[in-house]
Design a protein that fits this description.
Layout lengths: L43 E5 L2 E4 H14 L7 H27 L6 H14 L5 H10 L4 H21 L8 H13 L4 E11 L5 H16 L4 H8 L10 E5 L6 H8 L6 E7 L2 E12 L9 E9 L7 H16 L7 H8 L2 E9 L5 H8 L10 E3 L3 E11 L9 H27 L2 E3 L1
Antiparallel strand pairs: 1-2, 1-11, 3-4, 3-6, 5-6, 7-8, 7-10, 9-10
Helix pairs in contact: 1-2, 2-5, 3-5, 6-13, 10-11
GO molecular function: peptidyl-prolyl cis-trans isomerase activity
Pfam families: Rotamase, SurA_N
InterPro entries: OMP_Chaperone_SurA (IPR050280), PPIase_dom_sf (IPR046357), PPIase_PpiC (IPR000297), SurA_N (IPR015391), Trigger_fact/SurA_dom_sf (IPR027304)
Length: about 425
């Protein structure tokens, strides 16, 4: 049964932040709210098949997005549009949870908590023990994020039961693609992140403008993975939008053309593709079935000096110059200890460091070094100055490419994603949704 929504605000149940509450509500069809508007009152904004989405739900989810963008508050106009988009996402999330429940899928609290801790570390770079306080400080709540995680897990398991078993990929199809990969040896493949926003001819301009706002927030320092979790409608949203390694011919033409001209770390979008718009982020690229020098493993010694707080800029410059001269005089890793003592530097060993895991500006510098040579000094007065001495390098072996099983999973994931979009579209069509 659905609840008629009055012009007055509707009273919602109290939520315990430590748990994701049951979505089964038992509210009267008619109610009267007495007194002034209480900011702690969870005011109904929409009812989805009898389940209330409140203004508080929207505010807290919106606060998650602002937190993911580094705390940069959008303009009033942007906030108005973002609220509408957040409401749409909450409606989809509610439909997904309801459909999972109708299929007897139960998400355990322990699974939600594990993912919550992973998101704290991976998306927000925060100690999980501090995550609850961080969210409340930024106007959100643990409940809001855990509810989103619950929706993601419910949808994944629902697709795993109702869609994935019916996706068929033949061995001949897999072998055909692997042969093409072998033929394309030496050409490039790309690791992309994607935020996919579905659109229809009626709302295309609105979705495009929302995509532009997301781009602005990302360019101002927002976390791509966090934004993908919030906004992307692809099944890769739960993994931060990571598409994995793909060849351009497997992408829509519009995305392929954009990726071809992008540099690692660059954003592009919103790009119009069939069914909507995409924002893409080039995480990395490599040559197919070829050894990538950036996969080399390095053995390094790091020498570092720190500057006292408030040091005069001239003194800092002089000390950095002395450090640079000492670094130039290093003759192999065995000589690093002497050079460190000479300038009062600390020294740390770093073994098994992969080149591609280092900051971009350092990668090519280290690849050009011979064993025993040191990098030029780098850093700042605030963070200190460092040099790296190359003690050894294990060059990568020629890549073997994906296995047949890995390729089959890639094709299956792509087809599951397409079916998932159709599944959600059908849920929207069948839903009874009332707005305040």
């Amino acid at each position: 049964m659905t609840f008629a929504l009055l012009t007055a605000t509707a009273l919602a149940q109290t939520v315990n932040d430590s748990e994701v509450p049951s979505t089964e509500l038992n509210l009267p069809e008619k109610l009267t709210v007495f007194g002034s508007n209480d900011p702690n009152m969870r005011r109904a904004t929409a009812i989805v098949n009898g389940e209330i989405i409140t203004g508080t739900d929207i505010d807290q989810r919106l606060a998650l997005i602002v937190a993911a963008s580094g705390g940069k508050t959008p303009s009033d106009e942007q906030l108005k549009s973002l609220r509408l988009e957040v409401l749409r996402n909450l409606i989809d999330e509610t439909l997904q949870i309801q459909e999972a429940a109708a299929n007897d899928i139960v998400i355990q609290q322990a699974d939600i908590n594990r993912t919550y801790q992973s998101v704290a570390q991976g998306n927000f770079r925060i100690d999980p023990a501090e995550m609850d306080g961080f969210l409340r400080k930024n106007g959100s709540s643990p409940y809001s994020l855990k509810r989103q995680i619950m929706g993601e897990l419910a949808w994944q398991r629902l697709l795993g039961r109702n869609v994935q078993p019916f996706i068929n990929v033949s061995e001949e199809e897999v072998q055909s693609i692997l042969k093409r990969l072998e033929a394309d040896k030496g050409t490039e493949e790309y690791r992309l992140g994607e935020i996919y926003l579905s659109a229809t001819p009626n709302n295309a301009n609105e979705i495009f403008q929302n995509g532009r706002r997301i781009m602005q927030q990302l360019q101002q320092g927002g976390s791509f993975a966090a934004y993908a979790r919030q906004w992307s409608e692809a099944t890769t949203a739960a993994s931060g939008g990571d598409l994995g390694w793909v060849k351009l011919q497997f992408l829509p033409n519009e995305l392929a053309e954009a990726a071809r001209t992008m540099s690692v770390g660059q954003l592009a979008g919103p790009i119009e593709i069939p069914g909507g718009f995409s924002i893409v982020y080039l995480i990395d690229k490599r040559q197919i079935l070829s050894a990538d020098p950036r996969d080399a493993r390095l053995s390094l010694k790091q020498l570092a000096i720190q500057f006292p707080q408030g040091i005069d800029e001239g003194d800092a410059t002089n000390r950095a110059a002395a450090f640079a001269n000492a670094a130039k005089a290093i003759r192999g890793c065995g000589d690093a200890e002497r050079a460190a003592q000479q300038v009062g530097a600390t020294i740390v060993d770093n073994d098994n460091v992969r080149v591609r895991d280092l900051p971009g500006p350092l990668q090519q510098t280290l690849l050009n070094l011979s064993v025993g040579e040191a990098t030029p000094p780098f850093g700042s007065v605030k963070d200190g100055v460092r040099v790296l001495v190359l003690c050894g390098r294990d060059d990568p072996k020629v890549a073997t490419g994906p296995s047949a099983d890995e390729m089959m999973r890639t094709i299956e994931d792509e087809r599951v994603n397409k079916r998932a979009q159709i599944y959600l579209r059908d849920l929207r069509r069948d839903a009874v949704i009332e707005y305040n």
